Amino acid sequence: MHSDRQLPRTVKAIDSASLSRLEERALALGLSQRLDPAWVRANAAPDGVHYLWPVMWHSLSHRPELPDHLRCMLLIGLRTGEHVLSLLDVLPDDFTPLPRVTTRGEAMRVGQLHDRALSVREWQLREEEGADLS
Predict the structure, then answer these.
(1) Is the full-model pTM beyond 0.85?
(2) Which of 17, 81, 102, 124 has the maximal Cβ count within 10 Å?
(3) Closest CA to 40 of 32, 28, 48
(4) Is 70 helix (H, G, I), strand (E, B) or coil?
């Protein structure tokens, strides 16, 4: 898909308010990769930093009114101190102005967190299992 179009090669560092806005926008547009904004507000660390990086261009051929958008990996810092992985579809005009990771050290830290993080679904299952044991 869109192999001729350059994918932005940057990692964005966003706060929880920005993450909530992006999730709400994806929901309002009916984009397929998103989380429930209520779940994000309940679980994301309020003062946390979350990371977003594009992995592919995505289009909805059955909805030509929507522009091509970026399907991004999302690393969410949780209230528990853990990090979880998800996907988030973001319009390029919403992605571009977000602040980017500027140091190599922070980029390396994001990579290490990514390698150890559970998916949101895996984290939810683990939390449910833990609740069942109590």
Answers:
(1) yes
(2) 124
(3) 48
(4) strand
